[in-house]
Design brief:
Blueprint (H helix, E strand, L loop, with lengths): L2 H13 L4 H8 L3 H9 L6 H11 L3 H10 L5 E5 L3 H14 L4 E5 L2 H10 L2 E7 L1 E2 L2 E2 H11 L4 E6 L5 H5 L5 E4 L4 H8 L14
Parallel strand pairs: 1-2, 1-3, 3-6, 6-7
Antiparallel strand pairs: 4-5
Helix pairs in contact: 1-3, 1-5, 2-3, 4-5, 7-8
């Protein structure tokens, strides 16, 4: 539920003098979709938010900020089979994303079990984890949490081509750095609050 995004969209639509039906027609969607956006029961992805901003003649930032800030505390999941790498990544992300709840796992089965009961907004997945591949974990995670932003963490560049075929939106080489996280957050597929990002 994202009431802030819905209220912001409704205000901008009314300011523009458009009915829900007129906005729906401009966006090539049903009026019921606009109703869901404005009620906060449905949040469009980043591409649709960009189109909405153009239709309403406003900067994308106004809608993106409302989408991100109106969300509950987002959950960031980190999966890496090396405890020391996992610990370092979680510490960096807790500082970089103070508004997020950062959780970490060393076993894919535990991470997926958690995702089945909690709406993961952003996941950082190691690719090579013994018998289980982070590529497979990504595919399963996205069936459970289809609006999760998935970023791969790996020490091997060779995986980059395989990674894009899984629905992920990012790829970072280890070790994780604040600059790399900052750059990746600007490329996410779905809105994510970045307030408090380290500089």
């Amino acid at each position: 539920m994202n009431a802030l995004f819905g209220e912001t969209l409704r205000r901008l639509r009314i300011d523009k003098g458009l009915s829900q039906q007129q906005l729906a027609k401009k966006m090539f969607v049903d009026r019921s979709t606009v109703t869901k956006w404005e009620s906060g029961s449905r949040l469009p992805d980043v591409e649709v938010i960009n189109r909405l901003a153009r239709c309403l003649g406003v900067g994308t930032a106004a809608l993106m900020d409302a989408a991100a800030q109106g969300s509950e505390r987002p959950i960031v999941l980190v999966l890496d089979d090396e405890k020391i790498v996992l610990s370092g990544a979680m510490a960096l992300l807790r500082v970089a994303l103070p508004r997020a709840e950062v959780v970490g796992f060393t076993r894919p089965s535990q991470a997926l079990a958690f995702a089945r009961t909690s709406p993961v907004a952003l996941a950082f997945l190691d690719i090579e984890m013994g018998r289980v591949s982070g590529l497979d974990v990504c595919r399963e995670l996205l069936t459970v949490c289809p609006r999760a932003n998935v970023v791969y963490l790996t020490a091997y560049r060779d995986y980059s081509f395989d990674a894009w075929a899984t629905g992920a939106c990012g790829f970072l080489l280890k070790p994780l750095t604040p600059d790399a996280v900052r750059e990746q957050l600007s490329r996410l597929r779905y809105p994510f609050p970045t307030g408090g990002m380290v500089t």
